């Protein structure tokens, strides 16, 4: 065995500490580099990118909505990461959440299902003096008790809006199903029932339609399904939706931006929700869900597998492709003629960049559409704050109300003959609002 002489050891002696110091510096530099990249700290803040046509209404909105042209500034340390924005929203929804007091309404559906929604009265007069109701559709598997919904409702109430919030069928804890059906990606039945109730209960109210994520798909599809659904609707706001379910599910199978991981987590949550209603889905006579379907559900690792084994069968779709095509708002949204605000975030890990071509093209072609794309915000995050701790009220909460206020004042200031947006003379309809 060869050994080093004392002289040789002395030769390496001075170099070893320097070598270790160099390794420590390299490790620190690597960690800092990873932190900067993961937190996207080098990204700059800027106003939302806006796609719109030059119309009197769009010019009015640009003047009346400062948040359309003002920088959105997320929390300094973590707010530029779409993953952290999304994770924080998913974990806690909002911080210091208020508890608005509402009344739960129950509506019997033709197929035996029991739809529910919560009604929250305004906490003051609206700045226009009018009676205005926000009809709100939450995200996937969500309801009025979710923190982000409670925060938005409280803010809207304080600005003079009555709020009606749909509870997705099967989403409320301790609320049993009365038919073998749950909410699906684009079923508008329960939302339509809520809107009809509000119109009948408050004949003088105007409506503001708001949808978050999956709810954005539902409200846009609802408005586009039938022109009569837009009666008394002042405007519609959709936040962080994917527009095309077939394309969205294809991107969910990719590892880019960890979408495959998000898909697994969302599928696991959806699986638990469905299994909590197992007895209702299996026990009711009209159910077309069997033990074999639930067996495939247990093995599912993606939303697409769950949709194929369970969700499409609620409405009798023969294939997954048919289900996604029929339930996506992309086939209906071009029929919406009321002012339509579509909001997405460029760093939303759940909505692939290719899907954003849909709202952008729509805004380029239709004068009633504005597409706002923020650099940061994640999926339904949009937190604001100085350095570390976010504010309870988010950018999107304020933005929706600011936009809606502007639309309400625009409508208030229009001549009476133009308030309905359409006037027919000798069977020729003239479209005033955006010309």
Description:
- The structure is a single chain.
- It contains 16 helices and eleven strands.
- The protein is an alpha/beta fold and 435 residues long.
- It has helices at 6-12, 15-38, 56-64, 66-69, 82-92, 147-158, 189-201, 214-225, 245-251, 259-275, 278-283, 291-299, 303-309, 320-327, 357-365, 395-413, and strands spanning 49-51, 103-108, 114-120, 132-137, 162-167, 206-212, 233-239, 340-345, 369-374, 422-425, 428-431.
- The strands form two sheets. A nine-stranded mixed beta sheet has the order 1-9-8-7-6-4-5-3-2, sandwiched between helices. Strands 10-11 form a two-stranded antiparallel sheet.
- It has two domains: 49-244 and 328-431, Rossmann fold, CATH 3.40.50; 246-325, no CATH class.
- Helix 3 packs across helix 16.
- The protein is globular and about 85 Å long.
- A hairpin with a 5-residue loop joins strand 2 and strand 3.
Short description:
With 435 residues, the protein is an alpha/beta fold. It has helices spanning 6-12, 15-38, 56-64, 66-69, 82-92, 147-158, 189-201, 214-225, 245-251, 259-275, 278-283, 291-299, 303-309, 320-327, 357-365, 395-413, and strands at 49-51, 103-108, 114-120, 132-137, 162-167, 206-212, 233-239, 340-345, 369-374, 422-425, 428-431. The protein has two domains: 49-244 and 328-431, 3-Layer(aba) Sandwich (Rossmann fold); 246-325, no CATH class.
């Amino acid at each position: 065995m060869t050994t080093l002489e004392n002289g040789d050891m002395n030769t390496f002696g001075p170099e070893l500490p320097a070598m270790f110091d160099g390794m420590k510096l390299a490790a620190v530099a690597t960690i800092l580099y990873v932190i900067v990249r993961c937190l996207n700290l080098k990204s700059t803040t800027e106003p939302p990118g806006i796609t719109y046509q030059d119309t009197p209404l769009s010019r009015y909105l640009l003047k009346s909505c400062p948040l359309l042209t003002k920088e959105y500034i997320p929390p300094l340390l973590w707010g530029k990461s779409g993953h952290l924005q999304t994770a924080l929203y998913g974990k806690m929804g909002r911080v210091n959440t208020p508890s608005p007091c509402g009344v739960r309404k129950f509506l019997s559906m033709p197929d035996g299902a029991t739809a529910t929604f919560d009604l929250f009265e305004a906490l003051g007069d609206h700045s226009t003096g009018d009676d205005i109701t926000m009809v709100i559709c939450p995200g996937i598997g969500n309801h009025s008790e979710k923190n982000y919904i409670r925060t938005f409702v409280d803010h809207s109430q304080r600005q003079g809006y009555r709020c009606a919030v749909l509870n997705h069928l099967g989403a409320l804890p301790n609320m049993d199903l009365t038919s073998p059906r749950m909410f699906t990606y684009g079923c508008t039945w329960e939302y339509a029932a809520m809107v009809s109730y509000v119109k009948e209960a408050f004949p003088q109210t105007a409506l503001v339609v708001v949808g978050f994520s999956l709810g954005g798909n539902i409200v846009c599809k609802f408005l586009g399904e039938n022109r009569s659904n837009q009666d008394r609707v002042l405007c519609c706001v959709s936040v962080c939706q994917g527009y095309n379910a077939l394309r969205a599910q294809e991107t969910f199978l990719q590892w880019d931006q960890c979408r495959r991981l998000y898909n697994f987590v969302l599928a696991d949550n959806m699986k638990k929700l469905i299994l909590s209603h197992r007895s209702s889905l299996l026990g009711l006579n009209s159910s077309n869900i069997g033990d074999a379907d639930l067996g495939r559900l247990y093995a599912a690792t993606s939303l697409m597998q769950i949709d194929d084994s369970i969700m499409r069968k609620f409405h009798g779709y023969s294939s997954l492709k048919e289900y996604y095509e029929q339930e996506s708002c992309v086939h209906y949204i071009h029929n919406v003629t009321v002012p339509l605000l579509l909001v997405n975030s460029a760093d939303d890990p759940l909505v692939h960049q290719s899907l954003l071509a849909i709202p952008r093209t729509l805004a380029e072609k239709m004068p009633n559409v504005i597409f706002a794309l923020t650099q940061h915000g994640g999926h339904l995050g949009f937190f604001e704050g100085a350095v570390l701790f976010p504010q309870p009220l988010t950018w999107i909460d304020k933005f929706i109300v600011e936009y809606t206020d502007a639309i309400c004042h625009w409508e208030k200031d229009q001549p009476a003959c133009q308030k309905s947006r359409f006037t027919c003379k000798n069977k020729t309809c003239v479209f005033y609002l955006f010309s």
